[in-house]
Design a protein that fits this description.
alpha/beta; Rossmann fold; SIR2/SIRT2 'Small Domain'; elongated
Length: about 240
């Protein structure tokens, strides 16, 4: 199937409505952010179980802080790309019912998406690990303690050793259960339990579309697999909407 035919096929599915979007790091790399699991990704040069963990936060805070300052905080020049913008447009037009994301950068929200469910939390707001009160990003980056209790500030990401947040999991379950088409954008689909949702959608009779530069474990059950850039492919799809 040609690039054009693939785009026309996706446009037909999107125009039928009932779309759930599932996004991973591959979408954010097109905004200039580094991904996690590729050969040159963040985890290729750092051990996440040591640096992005509860143990690091509690026992090795200086290293924890430096890791998040150097690797994960999103510079102001990083902005939503055309892929984020098209997803937001489709939601506004009523085709997309919600976005499930593994990303912590909030680029979906910056692009205008509203119904976004963050499985792994987000970099902001910063909060105190001890009392839970909200702090400021500036204080966190400066290594300052919580102004209320003196506890350690941290981003609101899910660290290794923590459970995924319950409400986003429930929302993801609902969106996967009722959608007509489930579109994966830039996820390797190797992280559990997140990779359960495309399987769930497919088992409920939804069309499964995977747009990712590299093969994924779920390509064999997908109705459409596109190994192209997300922004380029969604832009081509927009021509037929």
């Amino acid at each position: 199937m040609s690039f054009e035919e693939e785009a026309k096929g996706l446009a037909r599915l999107v125009k039928a409505g009932g779309v759930t979007i599932f996004s991973g790091a591959g979408l954010s790399t097109e905004s200039g952010l580094q991904d996690f699991r590729s050969r040159d990704g963040i985890w290729a040069h750092a051990d996440p179980t040591r640096l992005a963990s509860i143990e690091a936060l509690e026992d090795n805070y200086d290293e924890f802080l430096e890791f998040y300052k150097a690797r994960l905080y999103v510079p102001e020049e990083i902005q939503p790309n055309i892929g984020h913008e098209i997803v937001a447009k489709w939601e506004k037009e009523g085709y997309v019912e919600g976005v499930i994301t593994q990303n912590v950068d909030r680029l979906h929200q910056k692009a205008g998406s509203v119904n976004v469910w963050e499985l792994h939390g987000s970099l902001e707001p910063v909060r105190c690990h001890r009392c839970g009160r909200e702090g400021t990003t500036a204080d966190f980056l400066a290594g300052k303690p919580c102004s209320y209790c003196g506890g350690r500030l941290r981003p609101s990401v899910v660290l290794f050793g923590e459970m995924l947040p319950q409400r986003p999991l429930e929302a993801a379950d609902e969106l996967s259960d009722r959608c007509k088409t489930f579109i994966v954008l830039g996820s390797s689909l190797v992280v559990s339990p997140a990779n359960y949702f495309p399987r769930q959608a497919k088992s409920r009779g939804a069309n499964l579309v995977i747009v990712n530069r590299d093969p994924t474990p779920l390509d064999g059950i997908a109705d459409l697999v596109v190994q192209e850039g997300i922004g380029a492919f969604l832009s081509e799809t927009e021509k037929y909407m």
